[in-house]
Amino acid sequence: MRFFVFMRLKVNGDTIEVAKDASVRELLEKLGIEPAGVAVEVNLSIVKKSEYVNVRLNEGDTVEIVNFVGGG
Amino acid sequence: MEDKLVIKGIEFRSRLWVGTGKYKDFEETAKAIEASGADVVTVSVRRVNITDRKSENLLDYIDPGKYKILPNTAGCYNVEDALRYARLAREAGISDLVKLEVIGDERTLFPDTLGLLKATEILAREGFTVFPYTNDDPIMARRLEDAGAAAVMPLGAPIGSGLGIRNPYNIRIIIETAVKVPVIVDAGVGTASDAAIAMELGCDAVLINSGIAGARDPVAMASAMKHAVIAGRLACLAGRISKKLYATASSPFEGMI
Q: Are A69 and B43 in contact (CB under 8 A)?
């Protein structure tokens, strides 16, 4: 039997659980968010799109995922 | 010679720029933008809703291949926030244009020009094409140009107020003597005549959101604004008659019986 280890992150103000050591890419996949047209910030640092697969998240990280909505 | 709007080597199809806020739904937004003939469309940067994953997105209705997307830093009240939002907007990978807003007051939404100037300088240095939303102070307009702004965007009146061009004299001064970069009125346009007036003053373009989205019939108003901007521009280039206190007859005196 395999045990999956989880960690807690703050994503867009909500606390969620993801697999330990998940990458930004994996987080987006879990949330059903396409990387195109979004921008991601981890602990106030913007993550380059090309780095989504490489950047690993840690317990307690604060993540912001933004996109474009209507505005003036 | 064609009268084309060109900013930093970018050619714009239309001198009417439109916002995407305050519409009833995405469909209405898309129809209004189509009717406006606009080329530039502004958007805001906000959190993806991760708990309610609607399948629809604004950019499903507004094709970034067809329109020039201009992200704004709306809601930012200090330099740090504005920089953060601008950098995030660029990282989304669609545009490195930014309509820079550093707001100074919640009720008027007037710009904090000192913060705006600082943010303009930093973002211009980072290679952004910066369009600062500013006030009608010609000196501030000049400072923003010196700081690297691609154009200046003086407000006509408070955002969403529909009051039109409250200080046409300053807008004219900005255009005629203060700056060499394009001048694009942003905020306050309430109806077609306001847009025409802005263009007659010599503006290079007008940005309108509330004036269209808040109209009783936004699609019809979008079309009205399109024509108003064209008419105002043509009138500006045609050279109006001067204003006189007294009459000069249009019909000849000679040949009267």
A: yes
